Input
Amino acid sequence: MISQEQIQTLEGQQTPFYFYDLTLLDGTLEALNAALKTHPDFRVHYAMKANVNRPILERIHQAGLGADCVSGGEIARALESGFTPAEVVFAGVGKSDAEITFGLEKGIFCFNVESVQELSVIADLAASHNKTATIALRLNPNLDAGTHHYISTGKVENKFGIPVADLDAALETIKASPSLHLAGLHTHIGSQITDLGVFERLCQKYNGIVSWFEDQGVRLEHLNVGGGLGIDYRDPDSHAICDFQTYFDLFGRYLGRREGQLLHFELGRAIVGQCGNLITQVLYTKHGEQKSFAIVDAGMTELIRPALYQAYHHIENLSATEGLRKYDVVGPVCESSDFFGKDVPLPETNRGDLIAVRSAGAYGEVMTSHYNLRQIRPAMYWDGSGIVEE
Ligand SMILES: *Cc1c(COP(=O)(O)O)cnc(C)c1O
Output
């Protein structure tokens, strides 16, 4: 919830900007750690691509999480933010030679490898640098995550992971490469998964694949089930913090593990999604024959999720309470997909009103662009007593 106290400090600030409630982030991390306490062999790496702002990364690091990176830039940012190389995993379907070398030189914990060809490239680069690369194989389990097709990653038609049919070839390459150490398996089947049954099916697939590896004489030190736990975009105030306990318990129950085998998670959205809001101001209102528009000073350049994934965000008018009308809340960018919501019920809205686009902490600010040569203002952070700039 954006409190009256917070609204007062937001008024008069130049818009648009992201506003992060660090007290909610802290509460989320506390809940996560409380749930982890009941599963001592579970580890969480924060999926950095969801949000890379330093105050957020620092808090996540202080809470004891590792970092899941998908680029050399993210590895560098993780190390700058206090994560040690041993806490960093590196995934991604298109790691460049330079990025792999950077990871090897820094001595990161694990490369999550996405193809047989990539295995050979990492093996060669590691050998030429006299290093051993610790790797996990990212499997494509051919499983429907039941989420928007742009954020599904675990079906055979997706570019991600090694298809089960290639596992023989992968294992042969690993056995022939002394510079590779196979430590684990990895999957990540998609994002914003709200049907927990999907994770149960993932466990079943996983169990079969782990048995296959054991039959080949491979002992796996860790299993990594990725991230994807969804958040409540419709009702962020009732469900500000995810039910991590139920989520972890499900894996504890359905995923078969051997003595000493660690279970890794890579959560992004579930950690940072609800603590961020895009704050924007109404520039104009327009009442057409069929529709009313609230034209705001933020657009798809600040938050692209509605345009990219047809994503829903809860929208609030922080300045008005009287009346009720439906508005299309649209941005200033010259694209028809540049809107935050259609037929959004809002109080009677006027020029100058502050609007909050909620649940924007994940995959929001990281995707801002300069299209139309637009420029976003620095983020603001609520630390419990007042507002701080980065
Ligand atoms: C994006 C991503 C995640 C995090 O996904 P969330 O839905 O934000 O939890 C985890 N692992 C990998 C490999 C990813 O690409």
User: Anything to note?
Assistant: Residues 274-389 form a domain with the Lyase, Ornithine Decarboxylase; Chain A, domain 1 fold (CATH 2.40.37.10). The chain has eleven helices and 18 strands. The first helix runs from residue 4 to 10.
